Structures are given as structure tokens and as C-alpha cells.
């Protein structure tokens, strides 16, 4: 029993780390400019398709194409900011919601139109098989995905914490007018946030492509959890999203195992309600 | 300027021509999941339904089914069938509102769809309210025909028959091959389809003296099925009976493999496991999966029309029929048959004709006795088969009289597929 429990806890941590990476991008965009990006799951979808096509057309492994996927998604995010989001930055919240929601439908529709609704998958990845020790067993692709998620989340955290550009981004998040007075170009910072946010989701997509089926609506499965993490961890907090990801992953898997899997999201959402009720700013958010 | 006026007159002519043309077609609304997680299945169903309509509208009689090649419906002055497709996104509310739109705005004579039992339930409610015939070809939740509806008809057998089939299959196997099954685990998605099937499986298992060691329901949009598979693994079942749609069917097989879960047999309840995308995505890991079905390509050995119809679909979409699309195809033929006999698009006339339907088995691409509805609107001549994935193909393994291959038992180890 303890062994099965340990197995489920660690499985929960593995998936939770990937949830966290998806949420990091979302929380960054939200924290910097107070816009809820409903199209965030579609960045994940694009990341998955980028990996799939790299594999299908040129036989390149998703891990090999990962840096290009990240760069590509960075460009998509930054460009999207320049072309669309910039125009609604001071618009009423409802307009912002409709815009990003519309983008979500547009991306899904485009993916279905261009690549058909067929389920795709990447086969024969470099990392395959499983690791087994002490009676525990994990798929190597899942372990790789979790490790990749930790590295990427860590990199974003380091960037925000220890680089000048990251500090400028944080400054804009804290007070964009004051930051502008200090000579920080707000437009650039916003584009940067969108680029990094999209790149995080893209990397998560690339990491997931070895284990998860790829189809136009795949983002929908992950986005709900990502929203929960953003609120749970504290709006705009990267470390908050990280710990919330692990927490939610473990609650989902272990809770589902001990209780009834049909209610696993009930557990996750109850935890969310509890935290938001007792600590409205989230676990690591600033009040 | 001249060009403009010519365009205008052309437009006027078109507008005038439109009502005249409308009389020469029979409009049928068909609702499928064309976007969303089940979109690939929906597209297959749509293509199959459209092929059926085109065959009826065309003049190629080579298929050998009564209405194929009739050049439209003979009793309605060869009116062409026009299918108007709508997308329910897998959402019961959307299904109901699309049904309403098709009835009130597109003025359809009858409705078909919706694959998802949960959506068929709501869409057919709308049809019942408006008094429009609804013919369902591929939803298997038993309660759909137990609601006392007057306008609802279903060609496919429902899960009660299918589940009974899977237990008859196990019993036959025990007799014939001496396999020993005692512990059964049930895994199902938690909408109408899965919960209904799981309840029946539990009931039949108990009646047949099996022990249900786990019954696990999960939300179909799950991002991981680790806890579900751990629960199954801990219960140590001989046989897993599973009802899943495509995405979750794929995810479950991958999770079984990752967690090293290997029951003696996996007996699936159609749906995702029989979708054309399933084997493409899981590849060799799908070998050994057993599933209830209503159709298989290897039945062509006994029923040549199957191969002919399949060749037509192959030529057009480069894909074989499967149990889902074959049923969608059959539903259009069954509906066309009724409308033709009704000789009218009046709902009451079609309803009456549907009640009087009697299509013999040799007029179908299904291995059924035919189509004839009982008082609840359920086709009573339907039958099921059981298929197994062997070397990347679905082969018929039960009933033994129709089987083209012997059952491979137990499931091969994950690294030996």
C-alpha cells in the first residue's frame, strides 16, 4: 500500500510540474499586464503541433526541436501582442476577455482547418520506455517532461530574479507608469511577457508531445488546471504557480486514487476554493 | 455597368430559382461532433453519411442496395437528399440548440446523429417537442429508447445487447478454450455512455457469477489517468471492461504501458477503441485489445456488399469503414427508405413509414438480421460481434460462426507486441 501511495504521489508530482510550466506562462502575462489570456492553451497546442511536424516531416525528435519550438512560440506570442493585444491593453475587461477568447477559437479553428481534427502522435522518441526502481515505475517521457518543466520554470524564475531585463519586467508589473518614468519601455516589456508566456506553453507542449495525443482542442484539457494554478499560487507569482502545480498534481492523482477518480477535479477545485477563501491573494501572492 | 446589371439579373434569377429547387430536395439535418476532442470521429461519421446520400442521389447501381443508384427518392419524383450538417462540439446543450436551428430555420424533414449518447438525448428531446422524426444510428445508451418518445428511432443495438454479448463471449471462451476468468474490473468515462455501460456490466457480471473487483469512472477530459490505472492495478482483475472515447482510450493504453499494468484481457466497449485514429496513434500497443463491434471489414468474406461499400469510401477518403461510420452510413439509408415509402416530407408520414420499416439484412452493410423497430423505436433485428486487434487490424473473433481468426488470449506482454 505504501508503495502504491508513493507511486501515485510521485506520478502526481510529475504531471504537476508540467501543469506548473503551462501556468507559469499564464501567470506571467497576467501579472505583468492584468490580461487573462484564454488562448494560452492554444500556445500549448501549437507547441505540440510544432513538435509533431518536426517529427513527421524531418524525423526530428521533439527534444531536439524543443529550442526551435520555444523560439517559434516566443515569436508567436510577441507578434500577437504587437498585432492584437496592444490595441486592447486599456480597453474594458470585457473587450479583453472577448479578444483572447476569440483568439482561442481562431487558433483551434485554424489548426483543425490546416491539420484536420485527426489525433496525431509522435512515435519512436529518443526518450522511451520506463524507469523502474524499488517496485515503482514511471514512463521515461513523463520523467523527461517533468525535468524539462523544472528547468524551464527555473530559467524563467532566474531571468526575472537575476537579470536587468527581468527586473525591468517585474518593475513594469508592479507599476507600469512609474517604470515608464524610469525609462523602461512598457511596450517592449509587454511583448516580452507575451513572448515568454507563449514560449513556456510551447515548451510544455513539446514535452507533452511524446506522451499525449495531439489534436486541435488539446489545450482545453490543460487550460482549466492552469487557471486554477494561477489563482491558487497567487496572480503573477511564478514560484506560486510552481508549488501550486505540484500540489494540484498530487491532490488530483492521490485524491483520485484514494477516493473516486470521477471526483478528482472536485478535490482540486475544493482546494482552490479553500485557499481563495482563506487567502484571497493565493499561496504566494502579494495582498 | 452592363456587367453589374447582368450580375444583378443573374442574382435575381438565382433567387427565383431557389424555391423551385428546394422542392426537389429532401432536407435532413445531421448533428455530429465536428469540432472539439471528438472531431476526428465526427468527420468520419459525416463523410460516411454524405457517401450514403450521394449514392442514393447518384445513378451507380453497382453497390446492390435498393436505393443506391436510384437518382434520388423514386416516390418523391427523384428528389435529391440534402444533408445539412451541424456541429454539437460534444456538448448536449449545443446539440439541443442546433437541433432547434435545423428544424426551425433549415426546415429539415428529419434529424439524425449525434454519436454521443448524451447529445442524442437532448437533441432528440428537441425533435420530440417539434414533432420531427429523429433517427439515431450510432448512440448506444439503452435509456434513449426507454423514454416513451414517439419520434425517436434507433437502428443500432444498444449497450444492453452489447454487454450481454461480451459476457456470452467470455462464457463461450471458457467453454471452448478453458480460460479462467473470475475477477472483472470496469473502467468507464462518466457521461451518459460510460456510466450506462458500466452499470450494465456490473449487473451482468454479478448475474453471471463474476466478481467485480473495481468500478472506476473518470471525467473524459482528464489530462492524466494515473489514479484510475493505479486503482485497477491494485484490484488485480483478470479482465478489464472499458468504455472510453478516443482521447481517453489512447491515454489509458499509454498509462497501462507506463505503469506496467497487464490484465489477462482488455474487453472494450467500442467507441474510442474502434475509431480509425486509435490504432494509428497507439500502434503496436493496441494489439490484443478485444472490443465489441457491430461491423468489421473481414465480414466481407460472407457479405460482399461490405467490400464494395468500403471500396467506395476508400476511393473518396482513403479510409476504411469502421463500426461507427458503417452505422452512420446505414442510418441514412434507413431514413431514406422511410421517407421514400412515405412519399412525402410531412413528419407524420415519415413517422408512420419509420414504424412500418422492414429492411431485410441483405440490404445492409451490417451483419444484422435487418431493420424493424419495436414499439419504443428500437431496431429489434440488430446484432453485435466481437473483434480483436491482431497485427494492427480488427478481426472478427466472435460469434465463432462469423469469426475469421481465433481469439488471442491472454494479452501479450507490452514489450512483445
| Cα Rg of chain A | 19 Å
Assigned CATH architecture of the largest domain in chain B: 3-Layer(aba) Sandwich
Largest interface: A-B, 44 and 39 residues
- Assign the CATH architecture of chain A: Orthogonal Bundle
Task: Report the radius of gyration of chain B as a whole number of Å.
Answer: 22 Å
Commentary on this structure:
The complex is a heterodimer of chains A (287) and B (417). Chain A has 287 residues and is mainly alpha-helical. In chain A, 74% of the residues lie in helices and 3% in strands. Chain A contains eleven helices and two strands. Chain A has a two-stranded antiparallel ribbon with strand order 1-2. In chain A, helix 5 (140-162) runs antiparallel to helix 8 (186-208), helix 9 packs across helix 10 (238-258) and helix 9 runs parallel beside helix 11. In chain B, strands 7-6-8-9-10-13-14 form a seven-stranded mixed beta sheet, sandwiched between helices. The longest helix of chain B has 22 residues, at 2-23. Chain B has two domains: 18-157 and 302-371, 3-Layer(aba) Sandwich (Rossmann fold), CATH 3.40.50.2300; 160-293 and 385-416, 3-Layer(aba) Sandwich (Rossmann fold), CATH 3.40.50.2300. The chains are: A mainly alpha (287), B alpha/beta (417). Chain A binds chain B through residues 4, 7-8, 11-12, 15, 19, 108-109, 112, 116-121, 123, 130, 132, 137-139, 142, 211-213, 215-217, 220-222, 225, 252-257, 260-262, 264-265, and chain B through 34-37, 39-40, 42-43, 190, 216-219, 221-228, 230-231, 233-234, 246-247, 250-251, 254, 257-260, 277, 280-283.
Amino acid at each position: 500500500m505504501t508503495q502504491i501511495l508513493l507511486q501515485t504521489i510521485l506520478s502526481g508530482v510529475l504531471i504537476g510540474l508540467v501543469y506548473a510550466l503551462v501556468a507559469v506562462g499564464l501567470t506571467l502575462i497576467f501579472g505583468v499586464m492584468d490580461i487573462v489570456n484564454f488562448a494560452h492553451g492554444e500556445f500549448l497546442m501549437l507547441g505540440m503541433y510544432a513538435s509533431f511536424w518536426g517529427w513527421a516531416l524531418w524525423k526530428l525528435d521533439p527534444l531536439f526541436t524543443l529550442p526551435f519550438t520555444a523560439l517559434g512560440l516566443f515569436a508567436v506570442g510577441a507578434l500577437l501582442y504587437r498585432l492584437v493585444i496592444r490595441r486592447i491593453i486599456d480597453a474594458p475587461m470585457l473587450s479583453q476577455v472577448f479578444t483572447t477568447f476569440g483568439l482561442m477559437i481562431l487558433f483551434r479553428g485554424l489548426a483543425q482547418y490546416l491539420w484536420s481534427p485527426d489525433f496525431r502522435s509522435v512515435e519512436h522518441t529518443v526518450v522511451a520506455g520506463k524507469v523502474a526502481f524499488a517496485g515503482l515505475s514511471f514512463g521515461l517521457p513523463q520523467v523527461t517532461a517533468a525535468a524539462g518543466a523544472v528547468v524551464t520554470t527555473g530559467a524563467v524564475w532566474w531571468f526575472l530574479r537575476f537579470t536587468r531585463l527581468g527586473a525591468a519586467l517585474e518593475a513594469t508589473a508592479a507599476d507600469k507608469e512609474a517604470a515608464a518614468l524610469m525609462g523602461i519601455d512598457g511596450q517592449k516589456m509587454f511583448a516580452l511577457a507575451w513572448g515568454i508566456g507563449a514560449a513556456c506553453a510551447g515548451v510544455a507542449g513539446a514535452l507533452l508531445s511524446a506522451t499525449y495525443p495531439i489534436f486541435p482542442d488539446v489545450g482545453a484539457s490543460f487550460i482549466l488546471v492552469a487557471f486554477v494554478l494561477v489563482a491558487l499560487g497567487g496572480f503573477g507569482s511564478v514560484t506560486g504557480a510552481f508549488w501550486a502545480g505540484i500540489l494540484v498534481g498530487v491532490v488530483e492523482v492521490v485524491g483520485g486514487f484514494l477516493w473516486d477518480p470521477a471526483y478528482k477535479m472536485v478535490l482540486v477545485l475544493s482546494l482552490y476554493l479553500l485557499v481563495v477563501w482563506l487567502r484571497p491573494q493565493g499561496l504566494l501572492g502579494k495582498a | 455597368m452592363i456587367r453589374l446589371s447582368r450580375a444583378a439579373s443573374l442574382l435575381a434569377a438565382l433567387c427565383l430559382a431557389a424555391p423551385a429547387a428546394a422542392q426537389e430536395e429532401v432536407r435532413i439535418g445531421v448533428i455530429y461532433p465536428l469540432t472539439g476532442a471528438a472531431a476526428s470521429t465526427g468527420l468520419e461519421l459525416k463523410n460516411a453519411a454524405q457517401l450514403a446520400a450521394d449514392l442514393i442521389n447518384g445513378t451507380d447501381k453497382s453497390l446492390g442496395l435498393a436505393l443506391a443508384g436510384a437518382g434520388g427518392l423514386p416516390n418523391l419524383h427523384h428528389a435529391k437528399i440534402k444533408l445539412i450538417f451541424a456541429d454539437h462540439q460534444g456538448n448536449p446543450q449545443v446539440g439541443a440548440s442546433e437541433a432547434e436551428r435545423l428544424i426551425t430555420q433549415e426546415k429539415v424533414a428529419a434529424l439524425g446523429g449525434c454519436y454521443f449518447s448524451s447529445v442524442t438525448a437532448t437533441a432528440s428531446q428537441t425533435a420530440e417537442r417539434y414533432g420531427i422524426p429523429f433517427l439515431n444510428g450510432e448512440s448506444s445508451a439503452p435509456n434513449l429508447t426507454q423514454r416513451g418518445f414517439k419520434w425517436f428511432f434507433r437502428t443500432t443495438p444498444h449497450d444492453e445487447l452489447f454487454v450481454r454479448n461480451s459476457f456470452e463471449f467470455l462464457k463461450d471462451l471458457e467453454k471452448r478454450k478453458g480460460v479462467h476468468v473470475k475477477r472483472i474490473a470496469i473502467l468507464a468515462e462518466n457521461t451518459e455512455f460510460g456510466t450506462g455501460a458500466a452499470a450494465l456490466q456490473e449487473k451482468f457480471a454479478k448475474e453471471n457469477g463474476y466478481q467485480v473487483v473495481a468500478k472506476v469512472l473518470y471525467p473524459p477530459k482528464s489530462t492524466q489517468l494515473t489514479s484510475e490505472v493505479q486503482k485497477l492495478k491494485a484490484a488485480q482483475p483478470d479482465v478489464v471492461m472499458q468504455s472510453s472515447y478516443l482521447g481517453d482510450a489512447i491515454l489509458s493504453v499509454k498509462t497501462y504501458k507506463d505503469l506496467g499494468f497487464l490484465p489477462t484481457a482488455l474487453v472494450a466497449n467500442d467507441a474510442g477503441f474502434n475509431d480509425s485514429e486509435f490504432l494509428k496513434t497507439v500502434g503496436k500497443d493496441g494489439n490484443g485489445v478485444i472490443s465489441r463491434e457491430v461491423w468489421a471489414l473481414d465480414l466481407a468474406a460472407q457479405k460482399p456488399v461490405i467490400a464494395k461499400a468500403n471500396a467506395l469510401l476508400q476511393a473518396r477518403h482513403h479510409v476504411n469503414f469502421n463500426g461507427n461510420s458503417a452505422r452512420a452510413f446505414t442510418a441514412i439509408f434507413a431514413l431514406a427508405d422511410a421517407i421514400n415509402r412515405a412519399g412525402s416530407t410531412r413528419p407524420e408520414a415519415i413517422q408512420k413509414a419509420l414504424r412500418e420499416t422492414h429492411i431485410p439484412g441483405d440490404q445492409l452493410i451490417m451483419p444484422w438480421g435487418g431493420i424493424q423497430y419495436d414499439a419504443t423505436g428500437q431496431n429489434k433485428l440488430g446484432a453485435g460481434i466481437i473483434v480483436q486487434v491482431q497485427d494492427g487490424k480488427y478481426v472478427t473473433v466472435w460469434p465463432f460462426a462469423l469469426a475469421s481468426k481465433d481469439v488471442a488470449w491472454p494479452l501479450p506482454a507490452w514489450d512483445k507486441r
